[in-house]
Specification:
globular, 6-stranded mixed beta sheet, metal-binding, Deoxyribonuclease I, Chain A
């Protein structure tokens, strides 16, 4: 059985709906994990996606977060939010808010999570501590599935570049989030559960970044970061036949500032 699974920070599923539908028709993934929906659960364009043969499990509040799993292999055992997921206490809030940043489901032979890891904002900011706490909870959540025999993966926008090679210029990020040692240590702890980055090494493509800022011609100049990742357990990783970043989806007007990351499996 061949399976194509992908992850994409869509940066507003409503604004990018034509791009999403075009990409689904062209790439034909069996499972697509989406992040940064920027719409409520009820407002997701279920019908438009269903016309292409997909069902969707979505989780959003209509603000800056939101995640979904789109599948034509079925959707079972859907879980919204990580168990014991931490919330973030914003400056204008009375209580911490558990944001819609994680959704899990079984899609045919696969168990997957779509995750949108907190940005962290600035080193030392409360959001940075929240990010590290959130990653610790993610590690605890996936530990059992990571060790299981069933193919399992955690896909999404991790908001962390795993290595220095995953940013166009390390000096440009000095002292900023996404490249700090505590963040990378949190990724390492996640891998220690039995997960691995399935992007091939050495890299099949030169610097396969997944995110480029809209400003300062970052995409044409390839000033990007690889922060959208697919972490799979041994059963998942052993089945990988190809993994790549679809840069074509980032080209043109009206695109997300992220590109889809695609993984092909032979199960």
């Amino acid at each position: 059985m061949t399976v194509r699974i992908a992850t994409w920070n869509i940066n507003s599923v409503t604004a990018r709906l034509p791009k999403l539908l075009e990409w689904l028709e062209g790439a034909r993934p069996d499972v697509l994990c989406l992040q940064e929906l920027k719409c409520s659960t009820d407002a997701f364009p279920y019908n438009a996606v269903a016309e292409l043969g997909y069902e969707t499990a979505a989780h959003g509040t209509g603000r800056w977060n939101g995640v979904a799993i789109v599948s034509r292999l079925g959707l079972e055992d859907v879980v919204r939010d990580l168990p014991d997921q931490p919330g973030f206490l914003a400056d204008d809030a009375m209580l911490p808010v558990v944001e819609p940043r994680a959704i899990g489901a079984t899609c045919g032979p696969l168990r997957v999570w779509s995750v949108y890891v907190p940005n962290g904002r600035e080193v030392g900011h409360a959001h940075y501590g929240y990010k590290l706490q959130w990653l610790e909870t993610l590690r605890d959540t996936v530990r059992e599935d990571a060790a299981a025999a069933r193919p399992f993966a955690v896909l999404g926008d991790y908001n962390i570049a795993p290595t220095d090679e995953d940013v166009y210029d390390l000096a440009a990020f000095e002292g900023q989030t996404h490249v700090t040692e505590p963040e990378r240590a949190a990724l390492a702890a996640l891998r220690e559960t039995g997960l691995q980055d399935v992007m091939p090494r050495p890299l099949k493509y030169d610097r396969p970044y997944t995110y480029w800022d809209y400003r300062q011609l970052c995409f044409p100049k390839n000033r990007g970061m690889r922060i959208d990742l697919t972490y799979g357990n041994k059963a998942f990783a052993d089945a990988v036949t190809d993994a790549y970043v679809d840069r074509e989806a980032r080209k043109g007007k009206g695109t997300s500032d992220h590109a889809p990351v695609v993984t092909d499996l032979d199960l």
